[in-house]
Design a protein that fits this description.
The chain is mostly helical and 160 residues long. The protein contains six helices and no strands. The chain has one domain (28-155): Cytochrome c/b562 (Four Helix Bundle (Hemerythrin (Met), subunit A)), CATH 1.20.120. 72% of the residues lie in helices and 0% in strands. It is elongated, with a radius of gyration of 23 Å.
């Protein structure tokens, strides 16, 4: 009986130790780490909704006026979110953000404003249903994205 009790006690002690290790490893991220995760997820979500617009513009998928109008509306809203994740100290860690975001914040703000402006126009145009106008405006949104990436996102060769 003592052996059975000892095994039970040992099992409970090991379980308690395991739970302690799991809890220690599962600490919430720092504010800076959370900011990086937030902005990455915001951009991923934005692209989830912008993707069908681009694929429609390229003719890869059929035009669905309702889907495009809805997605354009979401993209306009989502374009506003990522900049909240560029807080001081979030330039370190697992990020492709260039230091210029913080050292040239006026230019970064202008780029973020341009994306918001172009996505808002896209949402407005998409309501009208003119596919040619949607295609043209989707190109302007892509140009705003590329401009920001060119100036403020590290490329693979930048990491070396």
């Amino acid at each position: 009986m003592l052996i059975k009790m000892s095994k039970a006690m040992l099992s409970m002690a090991l379980l308690a130790g395991f739970v302690g290790v799991v809890q220690a490893a599962d600490q919430p991220p720092s504010r800076e780490e959370a900011a990086i995760k937030f902005r990455k997820s915001a951009y991923t979500t934005l692209m989830w909704y912008f993707g069908p617009i681009v694929r429609t513009a390229k003719g890869d998928i059929p035009y669905d006026k309702g889907l495009i109008a809805r997605n354009a509306e979401y993209v306009a809203f989502l374009s506003k979110l990522p900049r909240d994740g560029f807080i001081p100290g979030s330039d370190k860690g697992e990020t492709k953000a260039k230091p210029e975001i913080w050292t040239n914040s006026a230019k970064f703000k202008d780029a973020a404003d341009a994306l918001e402006r172009e996505t808002a126009k896209l949402a407005e145009i998409a309501k009208g249903g003119n596919l040619e106008a949607i295609k043209e405006q989707a190109g302007k949104v892509q140009k705003a994205c590329k401009s920001c990436h060119d100036d403020f996102k590290k490329k693979e060769e930048d990491k070396k």
